[in-house]
Structures are given as C-alpha cells and as structure tokens.
Write a structure and sequence with these properties.
D-Maltodextrin-Binding Protein, domain 2, 6-stranded mixed sheet, about 350 residues, alpha/beta, 2 domains, 3-stranded antiparallel sheet
Length: about 350
C-alpha cells in the first residue's frame, strides 16, 4: 500500500512540474505576463509632452490675439518647448524664408492664404498630418507641402451709420457702380503685400473670367472696380478703418469682419459668389527643429486648438468633426471655384498687371 501511495505522489509531482512549464495560450511569447494589455504611451517608449525640449520658431501673419493664444496653448501642452514668433505680412515672411534658405531660421509658417503658400512650395517640405481624413481634400496640397487650417470666406463690411443698409453692395459687380462721390472709396489691402488681398483679386478674376484666355473678362471687371478702391498698406485697415468711419465700405476676411458685433457693422457674403481659400500651415524646408515643427502642425490641426480658435477668435475650423460656432454654415454661402494652380503659378504676372492698373 505504501508503494502505491509513493507512486501516485511521484506521478502527481511530474504532472505539476509539466504544467508549470507550459505557457498560457492567450499570452504572446514575446510579451511579459505582467504587462497590461493597454499600457500608457509613456510606458511604451513614446515621448511624454514634457520630454519634448528646445525652441520652435514660428513665422505668422495671424492677428496677435489668436496667434498668441495658439502659441500659449502649445507651450502649456509642451512645457519644456519655447516658442519664438516673428509676425509680419504673408508675402514679407515668405521672402524672408527665401532669403534664409541657406540657413533656415523658421521652423513653421502658420497662416497665410494657401494660394500664396502654393506659389512658394519650394520654401517648404511635405508633411502629412494624422488628421487628413477629417479635412476636405480640396483644402490640402496634393503632396502635403501645405495643409489648410482655417477656411476664409471673403466678405464686404459696411458701417451703416454712414450708408443706408439697402445701399450696401451685395455683389462684386456692384462695387463697380459704388457711389464714391457720396460715400468715399472702398477700403482694400494691397495684393502685392497682403495674401488676403491677393486672394480677393483672384476671386474677382476667377468669378468673372476664364482660364482659357487668362481671365480677360475678370481683368475687365477689376479695371471697372479699380477707380472705386482705396488701397491700404495693411490688411487690418480694410476693416478697422470701416469701424472708425474712415471708410464706409471695405473688402476683408470673414474672420476679421465678425469681430465687430455692433449692429451698425454689416457683413455681406457676395451673392454672386465668393472664395473660401484657407489659411495654411507649412513646415519650412530644412528647418532646424523638424520634430517640434511636426508637433506644432499636429497641434494647430488638432481638435482642441480648432475648437478654441473658433470659440475664442471666430476662426472657422477646418476639421469636419468641429461644428463652427457663430458663423454662417459654408452651405449657406455662394462659393465659387477657386483656381489654386493658376493663382499659385501666375502670382508675379497677376501682381504686375494689378500694378499697371493701379498706376494707370
């Protein structure tokens, strides 16, 4: 009997040892048994926000309030990254980037009409952000040299303390018949120095002309409107001077016009059609801080930044999953087909023709 018990005990020990040597079927061979299935990113070797360090240099034509707010949000998210900002007009900043091509200073250009960025693609390098599935493909460069970050409808803005509301133009064509003897000239920025004004000029060309003859009919319309215009040396004056009563009517960006909540400031979306070219964001070719530049592009296109820029500064979001607040739906605006390629590839010739018309 003792021999039988000893034999049974020995067999039990053999089976127990064999069982201890088996690997659980659900546990991968290369994964430690004590590692959680959904471990935090910081435990998997990915960087935490505080692991990013250095200085990021941003060139931007954006207004100071949304620009500073965006930068502050980025620095709060990445506390060990310092951001330096150079603010100026789009064209001036791009020329600065061109001049620095041998030894780039800027990492990112944040802002500026996408048509202007497209005209200077050689200044940038492609980067495909993670959220492109949430952005209309027409608002992104096909090779990702720039990505739209906020669509910008062009509008008229009028001071109705100085002009009856019923006499405010509602189409681009109406501008040619504007009574400047009675109401003074229409404020517009200079397309040679302002990216938004260049877009406004191209909007008229593309709306009334055709590419087959280099938009000859569009230029005819520009020639009719030209005598009615007062060209400003800053794009901000095309709306600020209307508020101040220096001009009765101006041509400006939606994002600038909607800041004026007073009842006497009337915003008009031209009923014959208008453009909604986006501001873009682009990484400078050969930039000194590639990793931080990519991080910033992801940030400005991210959900939180897009919501904040819309809620706080009236900027129209580019993402399909962010509902614009306080803005007319794009579906309610008559939008025209904007020829990005023509605007980009003919910027110099368009500028020269504008200057010829301006000086007579």
């Amino acid at each position: 009997m003792k021999k039988i018990l000893a034999l049974l005990l020995a067999l039990a020990m053999i089976f127990a040892l064999a069982a201890c040597g088996e690997k659980p079927a659900e546990q991968p061979a290369d994964k430690p048994a004590d590692q959680p299935a959904d471990k935090p990113a910081e435990q998997s070797g990915e960087k935490k926000p505080e692991d990013y360090t250095g200085t990021l240099t941003i060139y931007s034509p954006h207004d100071s309030d949304p620009l500073n707010a965006g930068v502050a949000g980025f620095e709060a998210l990445y506390p060990n990254v310092k951001v330096e900002v150079i603010a100026d007009g789009t064209t001036n900043l791009i020329h600065k980037i061109e001049a620095e091509a041998g030894k780039p200073i800027a990492d990112v250009l944040w802002g500026g009409g996408a048509d202007t960025l497209a005209a200077f693609k050689d200044c940038f390098q492609p980067y495909k952000p993670s959220c492109t599935d949430k952005i209309d493909p027409s608002l992104v460069d096909a090779e990702y040299y720039w990505v739209g970050e906020s669509p910008l409808p062009m509008v008229f803005i009028a001071n109705t303390t100085l002009i009856p509301e019923e006499e405010v133009p509602t189409t681009w064509k109406d501008l040619a018949d504007f009574d400047t003897d009675k109401y003074g000239k229409i404020a517009i920025a200079d397309p040679l120095s302002s990216g938004s004004a260049y877009t406004q000029l191209c909007t008229i060309l593309f709306l009334y002309g055709d590419a087959s003859d280099d938009y000859a009919a569009g230029w005819d319309m520009v020639a009719k409107i030209m005598p009615k215009l007062e060209v400003k040396n800053s794009s901000s004056l095309a709306h600020k001077d209307i508020y101040a009563g220096e001009n009765v009517l101006g041509i400006t960006l939606e994002k600038a016009a909607i800041k004026y909540t007073e009842d006497f400031m009337k915003v008009v979306y031209p009923t014959d059609g208008t453009s909604a070219v986006p501001d873009g964001v682009a990484i400078v070719k050969g930039c000194p801080n590639q990793e931080l530049a990519e991080l910033f592009v992801e940030y400005v296109l991210g959900y939180d930044c897009q919501v904040a820029q819309n809620a706080d500064w009236g900027r129209r979001p580019i993402r399909s999953d962010v509902e614009p607040q306080g803005l007319a739906p794009l579906g309610d605006i008559t939008l025209m087909n904007y020829n990005f390629d023509y605007a980009a590839n003919n910027k110099e010739a368009i500028g020269e023709k504008w200057q010829e018309l301006l000086v007579g």
